[in-house]
Amino acid sequence: MKELRDLATKLLAEGTVNVVLGWEEGPRGVRPAFATDATAAGRLVFDPRCTQNLVPYLSPRRTQVKRLGKAAVVVKGCDARAVAGLVRETQLKREDVVVIGVRCGGVVADPASPEPLSPETVADRCPGCTSREPRLADHLVGELPAAPPGESRRDARIAALEAMTADERWTFWQEELGRCVRCHACREACPMCFCERCVADKTQPQWVDSSPHPRGAFAWNVTRALHLAGRCVDCGECERACPVDIPLGLLNLKLARVASERFGYAATDDPAVPSPVGSFQKDDAQEFIL
């Protein structure tokens, strides 16, 4: 996208930023890029293969990017919610980042796939997307493409889970989460997992068993899901990063719907809107208090 490359080059030349986080062609599809000069900026691309959420690189624990200086980050609508999340939770100052929004028509599930965007290749989160034009942006580039193709596959999967008995759901999640190898790729890919020391790494006391057996794997994944309740931005990076294809997105989506039903909250790219985890309303339901 020439408009994106020209803007990145201009921001770097003026000294407005020291690095632009975007995407470039790699040996296996597109990959994250860290452009620090005009030559690197000239390699930036944006198309349906740009699946990766780049916002985790802005996390305060990612000191490698911070050392490069002030950054600009290229975001899709779902990625912009992650920027807002970091600002909302005081992990990032809004004035410390330049946000370049790209109008999006959906991305493929696998950025290494040579297949074009279609109902079969589109990422699960894209059909029905309502944030294809990022609002939290200092610059907005590209023309708004057609809506992502296909229909949501997740709704049917959530409905199937909700139709199960409690015992059947317990068995389903025990089997799915029991495949976890405890690589923590989900944590590293998530923009909202920014703790300097994760509860899963603590040993005194040890809250979560570190071994990759069913008990420890179940405890880790449930703990992480609860920590993301009302905070998940639905970028899909945790599920894409999982080497054993655990449907982590379903778990996060279900908790997001609970947050919406109970607190009227949905992840937003407006950092001024507080999340239910970090706020209290006098009319919050408290039937669990005896």
Task: Identify the notable features of this structure and list them briefly.
290 residues; alpha/beta; 6 strands; globular; 6-stranded mixed β-sheet
What is the number of helical segments per DSSP (H or I, 4+ residues)?
10
Q: Report the end-to-end length measured between terminal Cα atoms.
A: 58 Å
Structural class assignment: alpha/beta
Give the overall form.
globular
Number of strands: 6
Order of helices and strands: HEEHEHEHEEHHHHHH
Low-confidence stretches: none
What is the helix fraction of residues, given as a range? 25-40%
For the report, how would you describe the main beta sheet? 6 strands, mixed
- The overall pLDDT average reads 91
**Oligomeric state, counting identical vs distinct chains:** single chain
Which percent band covers the strand fraction? 5-15%
Radius of gyration: 19 Å
Descriptive account of the structure:
The protein has 290 residues and is of the alpha/beta class. Helix content is 33%, strand content 11%. The chain is built from 10 helices and 6 strands, in the order αββαβαβαββαααααα. Strands 1, 2, 3, 4, 5 and 6 form a 6-stranded mixed β-sheet that branches. α6 crosses α8 (214-228) and α8 (214-228) packs parallel to α10. The longest helix has 16 residues, at 248-263. The model has no long low-confidence stretch (mean pLDDT 91).
